[in-house]
Amino acid sequence: MEEYNPWWFKEEDIQYKEYEEAEYKHHPQEIESIRIGKFGLYFLTGPRQVGKTTGLKILIHQALKKENPYSLFYYSCEDIPQN
Is residue 35, in this structure, part of any structural domain at all? Predict the structure, then answer.
């Protein structure tokens, strides 16, 4: 879990850093409709390579400005084996 949530340890998020350093940035509009509340469980589904992870990482880093880092949990389902 630590590799998906580096902000728990004040470490840099490699994926977000790559986004920040990219010459051209895609800012998915869908993240604007997600409102993080006191408690919530959010699932984002969709086709591959359309900006889901990028959008979530942007949302997480916006939330880190005012939320406790331990209150934000991210897990990529890419590692779940599919039969």
Answer: yes
> Which residue segment(s) compose the domain that 69 sits in?
6-78
Contacts of residue 64, defined as CB under 8 A and 6 or more positions apart, other chains included, come to 7, 72
Q: Which of 68, 59, 48 is nearest to 15 (CA)?
A: 59
Global pTM reads 0.81
Q: Is residue 69 part of a domain?
A: yes
How many structural domains are present in the chain? 1
CA distance 75 to 12: 16
Mean pLDDT, the chain, rounded, equals 86
Instruction: Assess contact for 64 and 72: CB atoms under 8 A.
Output: yes
